[in-house]
Amino acid sequence: MQLFDSRTARILATICVFVAVAAFLYGVRDTLVLFLFAVFFGYLLDPLVTRIQASPLARHSRPLAIAETYVLVAGGLGLLVYFFGPQLVKDTRSLLQSLPNLLENVTSGKIVWQLGSKHGWSYETQLRIEQLISSHRQQILNWIAQFGGDAAHFLANAIWFVLVPILAVFFLADGRQFAQVLIEAFDRRDQRRLLRNLIDDLDRMLARFIFSQILLGGCAVVAYSSFLLLLRFPYALALGVAGGILEFIPVVGPLVAAGIILGVGFLTAFSPLWAVLIFLGAWRLCADYVLSPHIYGRGLKMHPVAAIAAVLMGGELGGVLGVYLAIPIAAAIRVVWDRWRIYSDAMDSAETSNVAEMSPVAPRKTAIR
Fold first, then answer.
1. CA angle, corner 277, sides to 320 and 302, nearest 5?
2. Ramachandran region of residue 335, left (φ > 0), alpha (ψ -120 to 50) or beta?
3. What is the DSSP string of 231-282?
4. What pLDDT is recorded for position 1?
5. Pairwise CA distance, residues 125 & 117, whole Å
6. CA distances from 208 to 184, 212, 295 (A)
7. How far apart are CA 101 and CA 109, in angstroms?
8. Which of 133, 99, 97 is nearest to 113 (CA)?
9. Distance from C-alpha of 104 to C-alpha of 139, rounded to nearest angstrom
10. How many Å separate Cα 334 from the centre of its chain?
């Protein structure tokens, strides 16, 4: 009696291949994420490149249109840095310099007495809050250390800000050729049609997602910075830019931004902190129920529950990057499923039609007159 037949051996070999491929992809996950962000950046610039290519400026030359787009984007960023860069650098530097003292005031309990004397708290209330902070001192220090480690890891990948635009040039120049080569790798016409439709759907979905993320993040920067500057909030511009960047991370990012702003207000004993809290709540309602549905439209076609579930699972699997990539990956899975279902229905209909045509037809009886 054979221990393994040929069918079992093929199944085991297929499983081993899938496990090896999954292990390889997990090992090079940082490089894959780098290329993925380059693709996202390419999707962001592609509409502008296409418009410039069709204009007399580029004379229908794709490489020239890409170069002009990069010059235009660099010029726009340069203007933003020229007008807002000095104040942003000043606020950021001041925040980083004062942060150790602010954290020391929290862990030692001094912040409680500062706030208590400012707002007229009783001695017993201040003492109870100080004791509560002292009992959780180690946990607070662990949170600070974890946050510092995450920040250091982010700064270690700062080279991505240089590599992503460089890699995006290749996707902008040859992305359509890559897709066409992949489509032509299939022999059957229906399979090529399926892959072409699938690529078109994914292209539209990702382009819509990236543009919506940039637009929503820009609105968040303007909203946070304007309100905080109006209130003369400490480090207003630095916190406004940080809030806009965190807006790119679904669900978790806005909560972290709100926590950072309220935490800085608490540490600096900012007086009308209730006004900041009301603004954060109002902005969240406006962003989630007014701006997001209008900006995203029907581009992703995801139920809010599905989006939250995807974000939570992405966070468990990949941390911050997993949270950010969860929405587009879930939307891509939905696109693939919809296209596959349409393809399967079409194939079933074709098979049914072929069976009906091949089946013998009973001869009609002619009436004898």
1. 45
2. alpha
3. TT-TTHHHHHHHHHHHTTSTTHHHHHHHHHHHHHHHHTT-TTHHHHHHHHHH
4. 46
5. 11
6. 26, 6, 9
7. 12
8. 133
9. 14
10. 17
Residues 6+ apart with CB under 8 A from 221: 240, 241, 243, 244
Q: Which two tokens stand for residue 257?
A: 């931004």
Residues 137, 138, 139, 141: is their CA dihedral positive or negative?
positive
Q: Which residue has the tokens 């051996």?
A: 9
Quickly list DSSP for 54-90. Answer: HSTTTTT-HHHHHHHHHHHHHHHHHHHHHHHHHHHHH
How would DSSP label each residue in 161-229? HHHHHHHHHHHHHHHHHHHHHHHHT--SHHHHHHHHHHHHHHHHHHHHHHHHHHHHHHHHHHHHHHHHH
pLDDT along the chain (369 residues), means of 10: 63 80 76 82 85 84 89 89 83 77 68 68 73 70 66 63 85 79 74 81 80 85 91 88 83 83 81 87 84 64 71 74 77 83 77 63 45
Q: Is residue 363 within 8 Å of residue 332, measured between CB atoms?
A: no
The C-alpha atoms of residue 63 and residue 137 are separated, in whole angstroms, by 57
C-alpha distances (whole Å) from 353 to each of 209, 228, 342, 346, 349 are 40, 67, 17, 11, 6
Rg of the chain on CA atoms, in Å: 28
If we measure between CA atoms, which residue out of 68, 77, 71, 35 comes closest to residue 49?
Answer: 68
- How far out from the chain centre does Cα 53 lie? 28
If you ran DSSP here, which 8-state letter would residue 286 be given? H
